[in-house]
Every structure is written in C-alpha cells, then in structure tokens.
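Lab notebook, design round three. We kept the backbone fixed and only want residue identities now. Task for the bench partner: fill in a sequence for the structure below.
Input structure tokens:
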C-alpha cells in the first residue's frame, strides 16, 4: 500500500491472504480497504466445495454475483442455481443459507453492514 490513500491489488492474490475478503471492518483503519459500511469477498471454489455448516442468524444483507462456473445457493425454502456469468442473488438479514460449487466457480460477495466481531464460520 502506498501512503497516498490508494490501494492497487489483484483480487485472487489478495483474497488468499484473508479468507477471500478484500474489504471490510477487519482491514487496518489506515488501509483504503477498511470499511464499516460493507464487506467484499472474492471467492474461489473448486468443484464440489460446499459450506460445512449453514449460516444461521445472519446479521447482514448480502449480494452474491457469479463471475465464472456454476454455483448453488441454498436457502431454507429454495435453492438458486447461478450458471451464467452475471447471475446473482440477494438475501436479507435473518435468512439462513449455505452453498455448493457444482463446478469450479468464482463469486463476488458484497455484505452490508460490516459488523465488527461478527463472523459466520
């Protein structure tokens, strides 16, 4: 990072350093990627990758956009298959969810707000 308040990076490389997260409250306060308003994740998932446990009691709203591959979002009453670049899904606070990569997939997730101390493992 330079001292001019500008950060230039590569999503895949930077994502590998912090479980995929590129922006959020968990970045250093002096880093331009620090935000209490939202979080952004660059998720790279091999075929067959899936969330080990459902996220329950989500405190944020989220948007997930398919960059490449075939990715399945699971919700209590439905599944959503993202299969064309640009397909996306939005879910709100309190919506339990899980996911599965039907093919090797890259997804971009935006969550808001960025909640200090909250982490869905």
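Proposed sequence:
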């Amino acid at each position: 990072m330079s001292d001019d308040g500008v950060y230039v990076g590569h999503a895949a490389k930077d994502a590998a350093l912090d479980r995929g997260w590129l922006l959020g409250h968990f970045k250093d306060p002096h880093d331009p990627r620090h935000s209490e308003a939202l979080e952004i994740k660059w998720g790279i998932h091999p075929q067959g990758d899936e969330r080990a446990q459902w996220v329950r009691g989500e405190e944020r709203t989220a948007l997930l956009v398919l960059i490449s591959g075939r990715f399945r979002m699971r919700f209590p009453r439905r599944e959503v298959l993202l299969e064309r670049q640009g397909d996306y899904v939005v879910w709100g606070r309190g919506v339990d969810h899980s996911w599965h990569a039907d093919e090797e997939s890259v997804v971009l997730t935006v969550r808001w707000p960025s909640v200090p101390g909250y982490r869905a493992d």
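Keep this in mind before ordering anything: The mean pLDDT is 92.
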